[in-house]
Amino acid sequence: MDKKNRYWWSGIIVFLIILVAILVVDSQKELGLINNCKSLRIRPLSEKFFTWEGILELNNKGEYQPKCI
Length: 69
Known about the structure:
Strand content: under 5%
Radius of gyration: 24 Å
Structural class: mainly alpha
Helix content: over 70%
Distance between the termini: 54 Å
Number of strands: 0
Number of helices: 2
Oligomer: single chain
Order of helices and strands: HH
């Protein structure tokens, strides 16, 4: 194998390793966001969540659902 092919394949391998590293870091960030959203969704419910007026009030305040949904 000549040097040109060796450099070409070395470049491809380095590119693939960098691509996999970027995907792994991004997936860890997404998992953190999903777990954070899950923790925001699990909360005690007051009776406002079960009446129409309460739902409208919470929705207008932006507290009916977490913003990540």
